[in-house]
Structures are given as structure tokens and as C-alpha cells.
Amino acid sequence: MSNKNTNFSTSRRRLLKGLGMVGLLPAIPTIAANTSGHAGHVIVVGGGFGGATAAKYIKRGNPKIDVTLIEPNSTFYTCPFSNLVLAGERSLDSIGHSYEELKSVFGVNVIHAFAEDIDGVAHKVTLSNGSVLSYDRLLLSPGIDMRWNAIEGYDEAASEKAPHAWKAGNQTLLLRKQLEDMEDGGTFVMSVPADPFRCPPGPYERASLVAHYLKQHKPRSKVLILDSKDNFSKQGLFTSAWKDIYGDMIEWVGVSGDGRVVRVDADKREVETEFGTLHSASALNIIPPQKAGFIADRAGVTNESGWVPVNPNTFESQQVADIYVVGDATLAAPMPKSGFAANTQGKVAAAAIVASLAGITAPDPYWANTCYSLVNPDYGISVAGVYKVEDNQIITVPGSGGLSAADASLEIRQAEAAYAVGWYEAITQDTWGTQY
Amino acid sequence: MISGYLPCTRSTLIKLLSSATLLLAINAQASDLPERQVSLMSSSCANCHGTDGKLAGAIPAIAGRPASVLEAQLLAFKQDLQPNTTVMNRIAKGYTDEELKSLANYFANVKRK
Amino acid sequence: MSVRSILAAFALVSCLPAIAQTTNDWQRVAPLAQAVNSEVVLSKGIDITLPLVAENGAAVPLRVNFDTSQLAESEFIRSIRVFSSGNPNAEVIDFHFEAPFSRIELSTRIRLSESQKVFVLAESNQGRQWLSQRDVRVTVSGCLMTGDDSVDAAVMSSPRIALPRNARSGEAAEVRTLINHPMETGFRETAAGEVIPQQLVESLTIKQNDQPILLVKFHTGTSANPFVSAFLDEVDNLLFRWEDQLGEHIEEKP
């Protein structure tokens, strides 16, 4: 397949060169033409939006590079659209993605195991199956880990009774079960952490879609959001849409209204806030404070914040050479911790790794991001941004991005809801698949 | 601070450069941006339009459409001339006219299927 | 107050030329330079906890610890003052101790209009001074845009106090407090372009047995809904009193 691609590209390249258009060729593995045989071994740890994208785009950039993807699960369930599963609007299967096309079409070697340790000096990764692999370049897409016990009483065991559902899969189903078992007139309580955390608008989309479910099935129920901050993503858009669609079903309490949860009793489904208010829940969703996934710690790439500082041009670790880190684990603000951002960071890191193994300089990075949120399945809102590097820092390109218009028509909200679905199909295809 | 004073410096410069390029090579539609640079820039578009812009669904495919059409569309988004736009106006404003032209050329040269 | 509005508030003045910042630039921060009056300023002993990158400049969590073990006998900390290099007004928040505190650990939330340095100046009753600083990068994360530009009424409401649940006698314990108030800086404009006048909560006084033990002065650099936490040696018989710029006051007992 890759040979075919190269042949095709070469012939097309020649043709276009004749036309004076050589600068325009899309996605040509140009570097492959300059290398022969072994072009290096890249290990990718983590098969989410960042890692799977990077594995695919390294192979697209140079098929002669050996790429090994380490991912414990054979199916990856996405956090995006998991709120629709929670609300009963989608099946869990519909947000699951396999690695078959990365293997069969792009020739990525996929190993389903945990990466347990990393030696950045010796360039070695130790797996849970006992094997030790060597790499020339390592790319980590470790995602997040929960900070257990950052909230008193909330540890991993408690998360079985008061799910975070902030990693999709079984946690999503646990919370779905609580929602289904909830009596009409009950309260769905959600605790939201301070910044930074995965998917800033996610909790508010979740509250919306939970309310969508309750409105149909348990209309006397409430959604109570206890927040550790006073401002949240797309706040104005969410707040006015909530009022229009759900009346007073959703109540949001910010940190200055005593919204910060400091103690959880998962058995009693009860939480206590900073100034001593107790709230009882019929269904309890605790989204705890987070940090970079643990393998980032093992690799020595995190700093005292618990997140990973990276060189903005390449997403190579600032602390350990030849290790690249992308996605939610990184300190990449103003880029958000989103699947979209992880995907585009994976492409920047992939281009940098391909260039680095070929001994040439990496292309200048470009990133974009669009975060869609569904207030209900037919009402979408978004925030977008375009990013670049200036003075060695990531900045939002001035004038770009921003929120959906506050006064947009219902037709526009419907169009954005349809585009949210289109986005999901496109990004999951771009990350894990090849089918058009 | 500097960008605060002169927000348009870079794009103005590139505009000047691009018009000079046009004068020098009237027949060539190529941009001055290197190929792998445009390739990386274009990869963000895949997140909604599919890899290489080929996915057609709720969001239109962009691969293989004429460069002039794509460029005009992108510029219309950037200048808020396209009514009922959702997100493309916000995204197009993140790129210089030259970069939009390069992207239009890039996707025009992708073959669909 | 939203992220966007606080940034918009500061945008009024942020187009002024910035003074070049160097590593020992505290002298360029006028109110700080004025406050430093000892010949030798000590550097070790203050620990500042701030995020390296703040995604919301409207409310950046700040914690200050002072290592009291380096104080001489009968020496105690009189004041801890916080300054910023890049805000339109450098003063952020001041803590004045009216009595010796065995544990100096203070938390609050501050406003930072842009990436800049935050300075903490401590002074003892014997006139010794300590100065420490931290860099904070302020960004507005893409997904954090709120689209909320509301103007809240500038009145104090809902004072809250939290005492430790299991305070042990003889051990300093954390007391937290918060009052609702928009803390209008006077730098912010409405959508129509009118400057919203400054309205601040000026101070919080914590009294014990009718004697003031801690006086906190708030400035434009203090976040809306001013939050303070401190470690007190005794938590009995406390009274909290807030005063605003209009001369109003609220008193609350735990």
C-alpha cells in the first residue's frame, strides 16, 4: 500500500512538476524518497486522539519509519459524544474505535499492553507483558489521571459509587445506570474542578444532556452543578440556552456561591462544600482535579504542576530529549485540553519527528481547535481558535476564533448541532480510520 | 506588546510579498510556502473535513474542488461576507490571505477517492 | 466578573508602553519601591504558590507561606503585602497582623491582567524585610471564553466563614472566608463605552475577643468576591467585619 502511494505520488509529482506546480502536492511522503531501509523506530504510548493521530501521520510522513503503538485497550471510547451515551441518545459502541485500520492500512505495529516504565537516557520502554522496547523517538499521549484524594473521600474506590465518567467506557455506563435508577424529583449533582482540566466545556454539555434526558423521563428532577470556579467555558451561551430550553431545571453554583466541593461521601451520595453546605444526590458525578497520565511521571517529563512542559514548536519535552508529548497531559495553553487539540498536536509532533529522523528542521507548527457542545441534540454551540508560535510561546492568532454568536438564530444552532456530528465523524476517521 | 501596536505587520508584509510574487510569475499559482509547511497547516482542516479534506457528510468535502472556488469561499468567510456562517468565519480569520490561498491550492490538488 | 470583562477592563491601560522588566525590577514597581525601606532586603523564607500558567486572569489562586523559624525571639511578622508588575495598579492585597501568628500561611485569589511578576513583601515588628517574586503567564484558554459581560450590583452580600472541623487546641488551624462583591476596578467599560465606576470592598478585619488580630486590605488586584484563608492560633470568639468604599459594613460571627 505504501509503495503504491509512493509510486502514485512520484508519477503525479512528475506530472505536476511539468506544470510548475510542485509546491502544491498534498501529503506526499517526500522524505521517504531520500531514505532507504530502516528510517528509525518510533514508539507511541497511548492510542487516544493524540497518539493514534501521531502514529498514522508519522507513517504518512515516512512509511519507512517503524511505528509501534502501545495501548492497553483494543477499543478506545471517546470522551467526546460520551455525554450523548449518558443521556441515552447513543450507544457506547457508537463511540468505540478500534486500531485495525492503523495496523492493516498504515502498517502501525499495535501492542495491547500498559507502558509501565520509561528510561529516557537508555531510550527504552518497559511494558506490562514484560518486554522492553528500544526507540529512536518516543511520543507520549498519556491523557489524564485523576488526583485521588484531592477531594477528601474521593479515591478510586469511591469513583465506582460516584463515577467521574471523565474517561469514557465503564465509567460512562456506571453514571448512566445511576441516572436511569434515579426517581422523578431527584437531584443529579455534579462537582466540577478548577482549571486546568480535560475538556473545559464538557461538564456544562453534560449538565445540558442530562437535563435533556430528565426533561423527557423525569421532569420534576434537578441538575445541580457545584463548581470550583466562577467562570466557565461558553457560560453566556449555556446559561441563556438552559433558561430557554430547561427553565430552572439546571442550577449552577460557582466558587463564590460556595460551589467548591471539599468532601465526598460516596456511600451516602453526599457532598460538602468549602463553607460547610451539605448536598444530597440521587445521582452523583464527581469530576475530580486531574494531572498528566502516570507514564508521563515515569518518563520524567512532568513539572511541579503535574503537567508536561513542551517545546511549542515541536511538542518535544522540555525536560527529556527525544520524548514528544501531546494532548491533555501538556501545558499548551491557550490551546485547550480537547480531543481536537490533541489531534492537531499529534500532527505537529509527527511532522517534527519525521523531520528529526531525516535530519532536517521541523516545519512551522499550525494548530486549530473547535469545541462543539450540544445543549440538546438539535442545539449546538461552539468555540474556535487558531494558534501559532510567537516568541517561543503558543498564542491565539489575533482576531481568530471566539464563540458562536449570542444572538444566533435557531437555524444556526441546529446547523452547529449537525456540524458537531459531522465533526465527530471526521475527527474519528482522521484519528483511527481511513474510510471515507 | 509589539503585536499589540502593529497587529497587521505580518499579514501586510505577506500581502506585499504575494503581490510581488504575482507580478513576477503571473502564470504560476504556487504559493511561496514550502509544501510540507502547507501540508501541516492543512492537517487541522481534516478534523472536520476528513483526512485530506475528503470526507463528505454533514460538513462538505473540500478535496478536489477548484482552487479559485475554495479561495474565494475562504476569503468570503474571513471577511464575513458569507451569510449564515457558523464557525468558518472564526477560523478563516486565523490565516493570512496568502495562507488561505495555499490551503485552497492544496485541497484543489487532492484527488477524491 | 467574567474573564473577558476583566481583560477588557485592563485593556484600557495595557496599550501604554510597558516598562522593561528585568530580574531585579521590583524598584520599578512604585508602590513596592516605596514600601521597601530597609537597607537589606532578605530573600529566603517566603514561599509563593501560584500557577505557572493561569488560564483565567480574573481569579488566580495565590498562597503565601512564611517560614517563621527564622524570626528572632519576640520578633513576629507585621505585614505581608502583594504587588504586581503588570497590573494597572500594582497593589494587590495587604495583610497586617495585629498580634503574633505562629503560622503564616495565607491564601486568596488575585487578578492578573497579563503575564507578569507577582511580588510578596514581608515585614517584621523589628523592621526586617523579606521580598520574593514569581512569574505567571496569563493566557485565556480557547475553550474558556465565557461570553459573559454582566455588571453586578456593587453591594456586599452573603458573607461566609468556615472554621476547621477538627481544630486541635495549641495548633494553628485554617479559617476561610468569602464575601460576594463584584470588586469593580474602575478600569472596565460597559458595551456602550461608559466607564464603570470603581467599587471595592476596602477591608476585612478579623477580631478575637473584640481585639483586631488580622486586617486585610483589598485593592483592584484582588479578585471579585474576595476570598481569604489564614491559619489562626485560636478560633474561638471571632468576629469578621468587612467595609466597602461607600462606608457600608457587614459583621458576621462564625
UniProtKB/TrEMBL annotation, chain A:
It comes from Nitrincola tibetensis. Pfam families: FCSD-flav_bind, FCSD_central, Pyr_redox_2. This is Cytochrome C. Residues 172-288 form the Sulfide dehydrogenase [flavocytochrome c] flavoprotein chain central domain. GO terms for molecular function: flavin adenine dinucleotide binding; oxidoreductase activity. Residues 363-432 form the Flavocytochrome c sulphide dehydrogenase flavin-binding domain. The lineage of its organism: Bacteria, Pseudomonadati, Pseudomonadota, Gammaproteobacteria, Oceanospirillales. PANTHER family: FAD-DEPENDENT PYRIDINE NUCLEOTIDE-DISULPHIDE OXIDOREDUCTASE, PTHR43755. Keywords: FAD, Flavoprotein, Signal. The keyword Signal applies. Residues 1-32 form the signal peptide. Residues 41-156 form the FAD/NAD(P)-binding domain. It comes from the Bacteria. InterPro entries: FAD/NAD-bd_sf (IPR036188), FAD/NAD-binding_dom (IPR023753), FAD/NAD-linked_Rdtase_dimer_sf (IPR016156), FCSD_central (IPR049386), FlavoCytC_S_DH_flav-bd (IPR015323), FlavoCytC_S_DH_flav-bd_sf (IPR037092), SQRD (IPR052541), TAT_signal (IPR006311).
UniProtKB/TrEMBL annotation, chain B:
It comes from Nitrincola tibetensis. It comes from the Bacteria. SUPFAM superfamilies: Cytochrome c. PROSITE patterns: CYTC. Residues 31-111 form the Cytochrome c domain. This is Cytochrome c, class I. Keywords: Electron transport, Heme, Iron, Metal-binding, Signal, Transport. Residues 1-30 form the signal peptide. One of its GO terms (molecular function) is heme binding.
UniProtKB/TrEMBL annotation, chain C:
Residues 1-20 form the signal peptide. This is Thiosulfate oxidation carrier complex protein SoxZ. It comes from Nitrincola tibetensis. Residues 40-143 form the Ig-like SoxY domain. Keywords: Signal. Residues 164-251 form the Sulphur oxidation protein SoxZ domain. The keyword Thylakoid does not apply. InterPro entries: Ig-like_fold, Ig_E-set, SoxY, SoxY_sf, SoxZ_dom. Coiled coil: none annotated. The keyword Signal applies.
